[in-house]
């Protein structure tokens, strides 16, 4: 008998943490954080680090990795991740310590301990684990992201992490066809089960038209974006469509992420396009360079993706008042975020300061997750006997997905703390 415990990500998007316990091994899959309305981190349920045979990190977003260093205080279980994920996680850990250190159960020493225990793996590698095994596959979500196929006590379990079946300019889609169809359990995210994403070609066309129109009218374009994955996808999209007549600036942690990703071309769909995009972009190294970036027309890509602070707010204050400019939000905006306020009210309140925006505001669904139609196709790939455990989704979206496949063995986690046995 194998037990699968949902330590985080049950009935919610974020703080992903799945514990798989067999007779010989206990494997922890991700250990992330969410943040409450006051910006304080919310952690998964506790697990004893000394009980873990292995920890697997699917990718370097904080909602999958942000709690990991807290495990490396009293024990040192091996940590499996791609080398790219490990390097990206390091900058995310250090930034979190800098911004939220008072509320964290770890400091920089625990971050160092975590990174020392990384066992780097690549796609299609298999690791033997005391009679069981772990196999790692491309997840198509962000550079270096992976799915994990566990063979434990004779049962085969797939953990998707965050995954995307569609090809993008940055990445190939998830490697579904390397997964056996007759596995016992799929533990899968369903973040975007609430709807189907628009066709990528149409999305790119509308995005590029918004950029070109703004530039033709004499304005600049501000794109608040997530550091890992989204920034790089947008940069490649701009270069692919020859938006090179004005400078493209990259600010904040995104510029460091760009450099790290450049070291690992094997994880990219088109390394030549990526190298070209890096050549055409310019890094903003500090406040002096930020002022310089605002002197003439430009496209500026910068964290934070939901306008919760970061350099994006600096630029918004200076560009938002001019009707010639545009603010493009290329990702999901949580209902409690400043980005959502901007979309719905045209006003942003950050640090008790109200910013009224006259610039044009656009939203585009550049998602790195599979949408409803893709999730249905993904589940249909597996045999009817395969059990499906839906995590990392709102209950409403997860139930909507299950209704489309009511003949399948689907279990929707409504709250963190649930467990199933196979």
UniProtKB/TrEMBL annotation:
Transmembrane segments: none annotated. Residues 231-342 form the Beta-Casp domain. InterPro entries: Beta_Casp (IPR022712), MBL (IPR050698), Metallo-B-lactamas (IPR001279), RibonucZ/Hydroxyglut_hydro (IPR036866), RMMBL (IPR011108). Residues 14-226 form the Metallo-beta-lactamase domain. It holds the Pfam family RMMBL. Keywords: Hydrolase. CDD domains: TTHA0252-CPSF-like_MBL-fold. This is Beta-lactamase domain protein. GO terms for molecular function: hydrolase activity; RNA endonuclease activity.
């Amino acid at each position: 008998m194998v037990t699968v415990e949902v330590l985080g990500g049950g009935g919610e998007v974020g703080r992903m943490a799945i514990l798989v316990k067999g007779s010989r091994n206990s494997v922890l899959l991700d250990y992330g954080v969410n943040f409450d309305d006051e910006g304080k981190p919310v952690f998964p349920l506790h697990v004893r680090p000394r009980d873990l045979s292995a920890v697997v990190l699917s990718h370097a977003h904080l909602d999958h990795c942000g709690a990991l260093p807290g495990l490396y205080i009293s024990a040192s279980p091996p940590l499996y991740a791609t080398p790219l994920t490990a390097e990206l996680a390091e900058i995310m850990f250090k930034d979190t310590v800098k911004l939220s250190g008072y509320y964290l159960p770890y400091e920089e020493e625990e971050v160092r301990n975590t990174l020392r225990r990384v066992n780097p793996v690549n796609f299609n590698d298999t690791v033997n684990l005391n009679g069981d095994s772990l196999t790692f596959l491309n997840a198509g979500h962000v550079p270096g992201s992976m799915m994990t196929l566990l063979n434990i006590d004779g049962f085969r379990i797939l953990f998707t992490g965050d995954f995307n079946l569609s090809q993008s300019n940055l990445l190939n889609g998830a490697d579904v066809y390397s997964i056996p169809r007759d596995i016992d359990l799929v533990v899968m995210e369903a973040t975007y089960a609430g709807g189907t994403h628009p066709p990528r070609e149409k999305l790119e066309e509308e995005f590029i038209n918004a950029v070109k129109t703004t530039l033709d009218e004499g304005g600049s374009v501000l794109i608040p974006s997530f550091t890992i994955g989204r920034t790089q996808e947008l940069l490649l999209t701009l270069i692919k469509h020859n938006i090179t007549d004005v400078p493209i600036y990259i600010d904040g942690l995104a510029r460091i992420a760009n450099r790290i990703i450049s070291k690992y071309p094997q994880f990219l769909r088109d390394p030549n396009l990526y190298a070209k995009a890096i050549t055409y972009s310019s890094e903003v190294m500090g406040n002096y360079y930020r002022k310089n970036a605002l002197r003439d027309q430009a496209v500026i890509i910068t964290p934070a993706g939901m306008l919760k602070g970061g350099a994006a707010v600096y630029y918004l204050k200076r560009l938002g008042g001019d009707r010639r400019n545009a603010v493009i939000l290329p990702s999901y905006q949580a209902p409690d975020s400043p980005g959502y306020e901007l979309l719905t009210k045209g006003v942003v309140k950050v640090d008790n300061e109200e910013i009224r925006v006259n610039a044009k505001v656009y939203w585009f669904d550049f998602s790195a997750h599979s949408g409803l139609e893709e999730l249905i196709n993904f589940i249909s790939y597996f045999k009817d006997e395969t059990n499906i455990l839906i995590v990392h989704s709102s209950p409403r979206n997860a139930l909507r997905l299950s209704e489309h496949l009511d003949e399948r063995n689907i279990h929707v986690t409504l709250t963190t703390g649930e467990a199933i046995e196979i």
